[in-house]
Amino acid sequence: MITIPMAYEGHNYAVRIHQAMNQNRLMEQDRVTVESQFRNLADQIPCVLYQCCLRPDGSSYFPYAGEGMQAMYGVSPQQALLDGGSVFAAVHTDDYHGCMDSLQQSANDLSDWTQEYRVVAADGTTRWIWANAKAQRQAGGGTVWHGFMCDVTGRKRAELRALRHQTRLQEMVAQAMTQVHALSMELLTSEARERRQISEDLHDNLGQSLAMVRFKLRSLTALDNGSDEGETGQQLREIGIAIERAIQSVRSLTAQLWPPVLYKFGLGAALEWLVGEMEINNGMTVSLQLGTLLTLDEVTSIFIFRTARELLNNVWKHAQVSRAEMSVSTDSSCQMLVLRVADSGLGFDIEQIHNPQSSSGFGLFSVNERVKLFGGTLHIDSKTGGGTVVTIRFPLPARTS
Questions:
Q1: For 293-361, where are the alpha helices, taking DSSP H only?
Q2: Residue 339 structural domain
Q3: How many helices (H) and strands (E) are present in the chain, helices listed first?
Q4: 28-86 residue pLDDT tens
Q5: For the whole prediction, is pTM greater than 0.90?
Q6: Are 337 and 394 in contact (CB under 8 A)?
Q7: Which phi and psi angles does 146 have, rounded to 5°?
Q8: Does 125 fall in a domain?
Q9: Rounded to an integer, what distance in angstroms lies between the CA atom of residue 280 and that of residue 271?
Q10: How far apart are alpha carbons 254 and 248 in whole angstroms?
Q11: Can you tell me the distance from the alpha carbon of 78 to that of 70, in angstroms, rounded to the nearest whole number?
């Protein structure tokens, strides 16, 4: 207590000075208490609170760091206060530059700093750290960050395990899909061979037999000496008509299974024949454009032919037009074949192709499934009343030359 010698006011002055000193002591005690409570709270939470300062000369220090700094980085708060570089030196070499670059970017524009990186302890163990802080410019031109850091090693290990399991699952699915694709291609190859064999058998056996019966019938009619007006002549005519129908049916079935023109003269000739058949049988004129077509194997050729035929039939059944356009060509790299069929007919809702129960969309649905089996894509541009353009792209076999 300080006493000021005055006649009648000294005692009162002494009392006032004593009260001010007591208030200062109380404030200091409160400050120490609050600071102790803050440090206790900071040391109990699962993250490390910190302040990091970056000086204009590039050096750094940590004015404050929780005791957890030691466990995370192997650096004590006292060391961090003297030299912040000791903290950043613990960052994994693969993550160091990204961490420092993002910190510098935050210093430049005062954006929030958020980073996930690894820290290597003195014993060689690696920890994953997630840090978040707000940047603030200092009066001297430096930058201070107020934030927290969390050890997320457990979460990252779980994520990495999940990623490994996911990668393994994707590999297994890809392997299974490869096997399914190989099996499907084998089935398609077998089906193509069987179709060709049945087609040839129909043509060579049943077709030839019917042709022979027709020849014999004509010979028998000629020997009938012009008695066509009698009952026998009428029966011969009916038999002849039935035989002609049977021959046409065999030819049609043969063409449906495996058009002879396809394996005799190739895909281009088969598509030209298909266009002619569409006009003869259905009255629909098709404008055909053929680009450079490579020599294809039987499976690919029959697939393209059947797809083109189904697309044209779809136009005839649903578009209600008498004209269509079709083009077949390879792209500039000769690795993809492009089939395009267009009409100016009724158009339709594209979502119908995803519904196999839709009568108008089933044809395109089945085409789309086969195209995907070949590793290709199908694109449809259509709207009700606006016509339809179907473009199919699929890879050509590697053995193609």
A1: 298-314
A2: 259-401
A3: 12, 10
A4: 665 656 555 556 655 666 688 899 999 999 999 999 998 888 888 989 999 999 999 99
A5: no
A6: yes
A7: -115, 115
A8: yes
A9: 14
A10: 10
A11: 10
